[in-house]
Amino acid sequence: xxxxxxxxxxxSRHARSAPRARAALHAVLVDWxxxxxxxxxxxxVLSELVSNALRAPAPSDRQVRxxxxxxxxxxxxxxxxxxxxxxxxxxxxxxxxxxxxxxxxVVDALSHRWGVSDRAGGIGKxxxxxxxxADLVPxxxxxxxxxxxxxxxxxxxxxxxWRAVRSVRTAHHATGGLSVVLVLTxxxxxxxxxxxxxxxxxxx
Length: 204
Prior knowledge:
Elements: E1 5-11, H1 17-31, H2 36-55, E2 64-71, E3 76-83, H3 103-110, E4 113-118, E5 125-132, E6 142-146, E7 155-158, E8 161-172, E9 178-184, E10 190-192, E11 197-201
Antiparallel strand pairs: 1-2, 2-3, 3-5, 4-5, 6-11, 7-8, 7-11, 8-9, 9-10
């Protein structure tokens, strides 16, 4: 899948990670010009995928990785959630009074297609979903995007000049909040809220 736009981040195995993932996804998709329908559907699907990953049996120190990508060629938005848990999730048909087990049924109903693959370069699995999103369009070469959507190789405007981004990662504050850490080729790393607007250029 050729990505027009792409963003990735990691989450700790904590109950607050699902709403953090939704907030980060929302910031990314707003930057990509998504309408309300795809925003709502994507947030619901990602929430179910992240919740399932957090419940998967895995060491507590293993993080969950989220990747968001859009293909202009296929008009598809791809959501990937990777965890270190074993086994393969399956769609269940729970009884009316069951409190759990509906997550993948929701994903199955809303996705254009979805599946499970081995986790690249490590143990565990990646559960992915693709949604039809032909209305997402390329962004200008110089634009303002959320910090969570910044990619290595882009240049950001900071301290009155353009600086290249060497790497991007996420970190957790002592208060429990999520921040994006941009490591630049010059100067100290930047710690920004995920939705913080950043002026960027280079790389779609």
